[in-house]
């Protein structure tokens, strides 16, 4: 496959009293429409997270900090996470939300979890079985038991692996934090879409 440079990322800031959010902006792409589409998607998610945090705050917000991490930036694939921590008095502790986005940088297309796999493949069962195995292997405490991932389960791509994750309180107690389950791309070859990013990341470079 042809070599493709990583995209350039600049850090943008939203700041006010007790409120600082750092988020990424894609710049200088040769495809301006893709550039704008990705930034619009990122901006929309940043503001959605802020609005979502308001649902969990019982008092007056006194602190909000947001940041991001780039998980994959190679071969025309960009995968990143956006994290937002908020605390309001008199809550016992703050609350964090993490969401992620994975893009084709040539088109600006955002990949849902379903987009990564062949049409009709039972990726939900494959992942649910693997998550259940890791829960048992790692002896993770559960709040309500675990049955299955969601069709649109949160995920990101990193180092030739897909990482599924669950929000705080979604399946485990608060002290566990975010429950994350890495799965090698090579273990999913039979169901991976040939047009998706997993196939791109697992291919041998030219």
Write the layout of secondary structure elements.
Blueprint: E1 8-16, E2 19-27, H1 32-53, E3 60-74, E4 77-89, E5 95-104, H2 123-138, E6 155-157, E7 161-166, E8 179-184, H3 197-202
Parallel strand pairs: 2-3
Antiparallel strand pairs: 1-2, 3-4, 4-5, 6-7, 7-8
Describe the structure.
There is one protein chain. The chain is an alpha+beta fold. It is 21% helix and 34% strand. It is built from 3 helices and 8 strands, in the order E-E-H-E-E-E-H-E-E-E-H. It has helices at 32-53, 123-138, 197-202; strands spanning 8-16, 19-27, 60-74, 77-89, 95-104, 155-157, 161-166, 179-184. A 5-stranded mixed beta sheet has the order 1-2-3-4-5. A 3-stranded antiparallel beta sheet has the order 6-7-8, with helices on one face. It is flat.
Count of helical segments? 3
What best-fitting shape do the alpha-carbon axes yield? flat
> Percentage of helical residues?
10-25%
Portion in beta strands: 25-35%
First-to-last CA distance: 5 Å
In short:
The chain has about 210 residues and is an alpha+beta fold.
Output the keywords.
206 residues; three-stranded antiparallel sheet; alpha+beta; 3 helices; 34% strand; five-stranded mixed sheet; single chain; flat
